[in-house]
Amino acid sequence: MLAVVQRVREARVEVAGRVTGAIDQGLLVLVCAERGDSEVQADKLLAKLLKLRIFSDEAGKMNRSVQDVAGGLLVVSQFTLAADVSGGNRPSFTNAAAPEEGRRLYDYFVEKARGQHPVVATGEFAEDMQVHLVNDGPVTIPMTVK
């Protein structure tokens, strides 16, 4: 699975002018299932994400996790993370999981996240979403879990 993680002061997702998910301080997680991914990769990604120490401690060092700071997670599906641009100017998305499998793994990831973290908001799978965020730092980290 692929993810782009952004440390945010606040973030929200809108679909057709309606807010589907919002958080204050926490992590905006853009997530993509690739062909061949399973629950194993989703579990590994979630475990790493919840322990990722990218929030500042009293000394200003990145030593705290989203759990340590009681931050929220805003999880947004984004198949375009699997884009391959090596063949030309138009991206290929053949590395992304098929839509049905992508939805299944996204739903699994969100369900597991809600079972392990108190504040989990989401976008809407396969919808045209507008993502609003205040990136804190900025801190943006790409993650790949095999």
**β content, as a range?**
35-45%
What's the average pLDDT?
97
Counted by DSSP, the helix tally is 2
CATH homologous superfamily assignment: D-tyrosyl-tRNA(Tyr) deacylase
Largest sheet: 6 strands, mixed
Low-confidence segments:
none
Residue share in helices?
10-25%
The SSE order reads EEEHEEEHEE
Whole-angstrom Rg: 15 Å
Number of strands: 8
Assign the CATH topology. D-tyrosyl-trna(Tyr) Deacylase, Chain: A
CATH class: Alpha Beta
- Spatial gap, N to C terminus: 7 Å
Summing up helix and strand content along with how strands pair, one would put the structural category as alpha/beta
CATH architecture: 3-Layer(bba) Sandwich
Query: Could you say how many structural domains there are in total?
Result: 1
Oligomeric description of these chains: single chain
Shape: globular
Indicate the topology.
Layout: E1 2-15, E2 18-23, E3 26-32, H1 39-51, E4 55-56, E5 62-64, E6 72-77, H2 99-116, E7 120-122, E8 129-144
Parallel strand pairs: 3-6, 6-7
Antiparallel strand pairs: 1-2, 1-3, 1-8, 4-5
Helix pairs in contact: 1-2
Overall description:
With 146 residues, this protein is of the alpha/beta class. It has one domain: 3-Layer(bba) Sandwich (D-tyrosyl-trna(Tyr) Deacylase, Chain: A), CATH 3.50.80.10. Helix content is 21%, strand content 39%. It contains 2 helices and 8 strands, in the order E-E-E-H-E-E-E-H-E-E. It has helices spanning 39-51, 99-116, and strands at 2-15, 18-23, 26-32, 55-56, 62-64, 72-77, 120-122, 129-144. Strands 1, 2, 3, 6, 7 and 8 form a 6-stranded mixed sheet that branches. Strands 4-5 form a two-stranded antiparallel ribbon. Helix 1 packs across helix 2. The model has no long low-confidence stretch (mean pLDDT 97).
